[in-house]
Amino acid sequence: MKEMNQYKAFIIKEDGTRQPIEAESIIIQVGEEEIEISLIPSHFVFQGKLTLAMGSAIRGREQEREATQLIIEPGAANVIHITPKKI
Fold this sequence. Notes:
Elements lengths: L8 E4 L5 E4 L3 E6 L2 E6 L12 E4 L13 E7 L5 E7 L1
Antiparallel strand pairs: 1-2, 3-4, 4-5, 6-7
């Protein structure tokens, strides 16, 4: 089986410098919703892909019943806008 490589993550300080962080995932809170970004692929076929999870797919929230979907809108040529929305 292939080895899973953890993605590198950084915080960007006000002066633009990067500071590495060690984490399995990052949770970003947008309003009342959360988006989890996994830094370790769940399977080797997902290596090199960014996985976003919301609602009951986030570890520790498996019992939630409300569904959440991602609204993805194009921005500039290299930008997308992601909005979590309960349905």
